[in-house]
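#structure-requests
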Amino acid sequence: MTLRFQISELHYSYFYLGWWILKQVPEKDFNISVWADAYHKELKKL
């Protein structure tokens, strides 16, 4: 259980960093912000 939590936490940290970087891209560029938000919601379900 502990190991799984640590892996999950690490995955989330890298994901959040990537999500934050994507948010810096202008929204007009392929609607990346919308995609990132949708991905964020999907990740929360795991």
